[in-house]
User: Fold this.
Amino acid sequence: MKTAVVTGGSRGIGFGIASKLADEGWNLVVNGMRPEEGVADAMETLRSKDVQVAYARGDVGSVEGRGNILEVARELAGGSVNLLVNNAGITSPGRMDILDTIEENFDWVIATNLKGAFFLSQAVARDMVETKRKDDSFQGSLVNITSISSAVVSTNRPDYCIAKAGLSMMSQLFAARLGEYHIPVYEVRPGIIKSDMTVGVTDKYDKLIEEGLCVTKRWGIPDDVGKAVAALARGDFPYSTGQVIMVDGALTMPRL
Ligand code: NAP
Assistant:
């Protein structure tokens, strides 16, 4: 059985991804910030799918947090994991205008949404390369959950947009570096998805979607993203490393 790490995997999009992977028989390391008691229901739901599930509490933006994720992951996998999904993320605190954004918030968003994913990917990639050198049949891949904010400007979320744009470049960098080991790296770029992150902007997006913001006239749901990640993880896109998979209901498709 293969093992995947899903950061921020106990709720929202991360839980949608973890659920779809569990449906396909992946053992899981679910990471998050909350104590284990707070995620008991989510873990129970995943375990009911007959896979092994371990919880790794820790801040992806910190050395200690990433160390804990790696320790739990190596133990569950008995070596290198086969898949890392960099999903954990926060929105821009307070959604402040670019002329008012403060350094503390900027650092927090970059540390969580970009730096954490970078150094976790680096550590997991090293494990994968080492394993692949010993065993050519080993299959590994990385998936980064970015956002349409990688390319679509929101002047009240500059830190978020910059972090996601950086994560898009990061996907290409790791794809280029890991190509020789046949370890594909993909970017999954969601649009507007129902989760705790978007609760505060429900009315705004209800209205915009009703007015035709997306070609597919509805909110995205975590399951939409989970299905895309599961297909990538399954190996259904073997010749597409470095590519962006859009999960945005065609919000970003240019239209006249
Ligand atoms: P969410 O419902 O707010 O969930 C965020 C998850 O990330 C939670 O599981 C949380 O852990 C975890 N997390 C936050 N900070 C963390 C940290 N420092 N270390 C480890 N885990 C941390 O958000 P979501 O909507 O599911 O978003 C998931 C990802 O999709 C994010 O990267 C987000 O930017 C991206 N995205 C979201 C949308 C959208 O419309 N919702 C659109 C495009 C992209 P706890 O549960 O322990 O708090």
Observations:
- The longest strand covers residues 27-32.
- The first helix runs from residue 12 to 23.
- The chain has a mean pLDDT of 98.
- Strands lie at 3-6, 27-32, 53-57, 83-86, 141-145, 185-190, 244-247.
